[in-house]
Predict the structure.
Amino acid sequence: MIAASHKQPGYIAALLHRLAGLALAIFLPIHFLALATALNGADALDAFLNITQTPILKFAEGVIVVALALHMTLGLRVLAVEFLPVREQTSLTVSVCLAAALAVGLLFMFNVG
Amino acid sequence: MTAILFAAQRISAGVLAFAVTVHLATILYAVRTGLTAEEVLGRTRENIWFLAFYLLFVLAIAVHAPIGLRNIAREWTNWHGRSLDVALAGFAIVLLLLGVRAALAVYLPIAMFLR
Amino acid sequence: MAESELLHVEVWRGAAEGKFQSFDVPRREHQTVLDVVTQIQREQDATLSYRFACRVGMCGSCAMVVNGRPRWTCRTRVKEVAKSGGQLRLEPLKNFAVVKDLAVEMTDFFDKWRDAKGYFEPRKSWQDLSQREFEIVPPASPQRQAADAGIECIGCGVCYSACDVVAWSKDYLGPAALNRAWTLVNDVRDGEQDARLSAVSGSAGCHACHTHMNCTQFCPKGIAPTYSIAGLKRAMVSRALGRRT
């Protein structure tokens, strides 16, 4: 049974925000190392990019893109609550943030093929 | 100290809001035309604006991520105090170094690396 | 009055260790959860411990967790939380040490009010004759309005019970203490603003609020501690940045 407090939109927002941030913090060093393979020339970078063409890794990339967009939209919500004088409609705001992040993710996945 | 960390977190968040929007837009655009090394490097090699942008991006990340991880560690694990702060400062330096290296790797002219 | 139906109630018995005890209470049309607990204690098991005082939603003494949500039992109709055929599950407030059954230890909660400097310290001394005049505080001023938005808190502990950060960090001052500190930050008659901002800027302070907003969701008085805490965050940042320049 999930505690009542854990079904509140604010909690879901904060949890997703935190988990997305954690995923990004783990992903980033790998991302930097991957890009730095270019130090050995374009072929080295190409070789690395080819390894990442498998369906599972492509899907993981899509998840990372969603995580980034989600962390940003929910982070903007936090900034708004903390620094703007408007009172937000929490469940609506969180839904919009989720929708926007998923839209970005879908756009990415459709285009990356 | 927590006030300074909080301020740094929120300020770096503001910088990242701008940087991430640009980055996501760029990536969404770039994947439509293909993501080979050739295409990526064609955009980034010797492009000073690219370098400036990504160095700023890396700096903001090196501030923002460790502070966020600090909150997670202190609230969800038993780790707190000096050792945690030292470890995260180390992580910040790692992010900064790896990030700058990555930005330079795709910016500097290819001739530099052919041995 | 339809009294043929019985309401099944599970009540926490014990302290940190214990178990749920079952009771069946006659359903009544307009009964509140407080009515139910009182019926159990008076008619079924006199050893049950619980708190109440005013029973009309003014004192906050009767706060406890009803079917997973912290609320005032005197202001909670059974119909609202346990439809026909439903049941009640009563637990002491979360994040507090349990004294016995449904009564919790409030000491830490009020100690945090003190630690957050949630008390008034006059700027002017009443002993100085030349200063014995009334402070003029226009009710419509932004600061007074900010204070008024949080001033009705009666220290019932519902927000503290609902707060996830309190559950995660035992030291976190909590929504009630911070809300009270914010009302005083906006009190122009108070003279300890610097010390107060220091008190709420420490490792257990306002920055730890992650805007889950459970406090705002559950506060029976409609106070929004999240926004009071946001005010403290802004004040804290202004002061931190101001000090450095």
